[in-house]
Amino acid sequence: MRHRHPARFGIAALALALTAVGCSSSDGGGSASDDKAGGRETTVTSCGRKLSFDVPPERAVALDQSSTEVLLELGLQNRMAGTSNLKTKIAPEYKKAYDKVDVLSPKILTSEQLRAATPDFTLGGFTDYFTKDRVGTREELAGLGLPSFVSAVDCPKQNAAEGTKSPFELLFQDYRDLGRIFGVEQRAAKLVKDQRATLAEAAKTADRVKGKPTVVWLYSVYGDTPYVAGKSAIPSEMSRTVGAKNAFDDIDEDWPTVTWEQIAERDPDFIVIGDLSERGKPGDSAADKLKAIRANPVMSKLDAVGKKRFIEIPGTEMDPSVRTVGALPRLAAGMKDLGYVR
């Protein structure tokens, strides 16, 4: 679960990183054909920080499942020094490739674990992973010669300065930037094309939706505190795409904490429940969430609860990930089963 929410690298790690990364003050450099190992300079901007590469990274470390699966989708498992922070089961199509990658930690990575992997590149879906009490700040890592990449979806200040882009367009930007960094531009372009087609097909659902049903996206429950999708979380865009409305679209946060009473006041037409079983904390599994909902005296009286209007999806698909677009057809199918789609 995302929370708003000092690394010192060994000599080997630092030397390896410095051979892969240079400094640049502007975007530029030529592109490379897929799998070209060198002879190029590529610069991309990631969440306000310019990253420059003379050769593609060979020892990437992913700080979360979303980043891991993007690299696997791009066929980069042999360029990975490790993965971490598994939230749900790895998608079946990635399992064989995932088994070839070292799991540095099933939980959130520490600076010591990152250092031990001797990486030349690290990436995460959220800026929250790059803090002093986790792997270190991006500034600290840059000072040690280690480039860090953050999903464009989690860069609100930069995105506001550049103009309005949908979360999906920002996600596609991630694919293209990673394609350039690793020299697999053709694979990245194909991924963008395929996901655009899926997105366009899912958007047709909106024309067949009866009214505009409201939905609560329930990500986690800690103790008796639910975390739901707010306005800036990608589920709000997912809702709009299929003709629904996020019930907490008026809260300008990603994953605000609310009360069960607040959810009951919104009286959603249906509830999407995220399953985070692999993370293993109380309240993470879909079963735990359903139990908490039904046990609450206020929630149990909701029409959506009484009529079992639930749609369950893996929690990682509520994060910006390579699997998010693929969740849209299942979301639309779930809405049809609940009677909201003609």
From TrEMBL:
Pfam families: Peripla_BP_2 (PF01497). InterPro entries: ABC_Transporter_SBP, ABC_transptr_periplasmic_BD. Residues 1-25 form the signal peptide. Residues 59-342 form the Fe/B12 periplasmic-binding domain. Keywords: Signal. The keyword Isomerase does not apply. Belongs to the bacterial solute-binding protein 8 family. This is ABC transporter substrate-binding protein.
